[in-house]
Design a protein that fits this description.
The protein is mainly α. The chain has one domain. Helices cover 55% and strands 0% of the residues. The protein contains 4 helices and no strands. It starts with 11 loop residues before the first helix and ends with a helix.
Length: 66
């Protein structure tokens, strides 16, 4: 569950490459941490996107759909 009830805004590059649990774990815990958290979340998605061995949310959904 998101802290304030609303998920963060993000492009398909985020949601296709990072799991919700990862995003939540990296979410800011205080207003002063927003930029640092955003940078960490983006870096995580970027790292996953370039990892050919990572079973991303997009890949898992595609495999389920056949």
């Amino acid at each position: 569950m998101w802290r304030d009830g609303a998920p963060p805004a993000g492009s398909d590059g985020l949601w296709d490459n990072a799991f919700e649990s990862e995003i939540v774990s990296l979410a800011p815990r205080a207003p002063g941490e927003v930029q640092r958290a955003a940078d960490r979340i983006a870096a995580t998605a970027r790292t996953h996107a370039s990892d050919n061995e990572f079973a991303s949310p997009y890949i898992r959904e595609a495999l389920q759909q056949g």
